[in-house]
């Protein structure tokens, strides 16, 4: 291989770094709601606050007061490692400083309002209720950067990648009481997903026997948005005054709109060429289509509630298989994408369980556990193609609550972690030069942590 091609290969190996990517393999990276987070996401058989519109709309019929709820993530980070090393090993770069961080996250994880209406029963409660809800059940924002000397100290390189991937669910729900035991409900959600993924790479190398340098600059900018709608139907049945069961079914999503834009540029200044040359290549597309599909979801749960003493709850949920193409573009664009656009999600079942206990009437402590299993297909030992990461996560939540006359406030933390495998290119040189590409499986670990504050105002 010539020195020029070697330099080009080293440069491209940085461009091909895939450590940061959007995640289309999990459903419970972030729990949402106020009391739901306390119980580790086990809320289907309770669902009596605004987040119930998402978990089981039938539960909002048990509201005793009109209420406004806001739950905010105060701080969060994601940590990942490959082969027990933070970051992605970059072939050909020996002395590379690595820096990775997650930006401070201060966003409303959920906000909602519920109120009763219609005739009242013998207990003075409305027989019907309605509500609105806005939730962010999936949010990832992080940066990856590399700076340092290239192999044999023949040049310097800088790499920066910034990824933001979020979902916003906006919806409304209605519920009705049918006697003392049965509640039924229906809600609808509009789901907006937006992704922005940008890479910036700069490499400069001195040319042997001279004072000049070769410069390579690459920018890859990918963004897309898509909107979907879905319906959620639910039922809640009170077996005993303290014991309830709940069931909700979410319909497959129907896409409402989509858009994607791509801009790939590469600039090279090579004084050693004959004759010396500077080139600039740009490939753009502004009207591509994007997809994010959601399959059937079934949630079932049970809860035991002793008023002013304790609550115990457990849920199981099943997400049906679904497949979609994140960005549908021609091959010349697809090969430059920093992620695999083909998403194949297997069916997956998760569990949630938790409890909340009142230390005194005004103060509670709570803890929950949950799973966040990967929907990605299993990765073979010798993969012949790119795969989504396969990591099964387990999580726990811990909270402290304060109950005032008109407010309920909870402060807590949620942590999840897991190990599995991922696929990275065996040689980024082959990938970019359009030769036959090889892949290898590596060990991959993930962990999520965030602190949250939830407040419910009752009146």
Polypeptide structure, described:
7% of the residues lie in helices and 62% in strands. It has a single domain (3-458), classed as Outer membrane protein transport protein (OMPP1/FadL/TodX) (Porin, Beta Barrel), CATH 2.40.160. It is mainly beta and 459 residues long. β8 (213-238) and β9 form a beta hairpin. Strands 1-4-5-6-7-8-9-12-13-17-18-19-20-21 form a 14-stranded antiparallel β-barrel. The protein starts with a helix and ends with a strand. Residues 1-20, 85-104 and 427-435 have low confidence and may be disordered. It has helices at residues 3-15, 35-38, 52-55, 331-334, 428-432; strands at residues 67-82, 85-86, 95-102, 107-120, 126-149, 156-178, 182-206, 213-238, 243-250, 254-270, 277-290, 297-306, 310-319, 322-325, 327-328, 342-345, 348-360, 363-372, 390-403, 407-425, 439-458. It is elongated and about 95 Å long.
Briefly summarize what is shown.
The protein is mainly beta. The chain has helices spanning 3-15, 35-38, 52-55, 331-334, 428-432, and strands at 67-82, 85-86, 95-102, 107-120, 126-149, 156-178, 182-206, 213-238, 243-250, 254-270, 277-290, 297-306, 310-319, 322-325, 327-328, 342-345, 348-360, 363-372, 390-403, 407-425, 439-458. It has one domain (3-458): Porin, CATH 2.40.160.
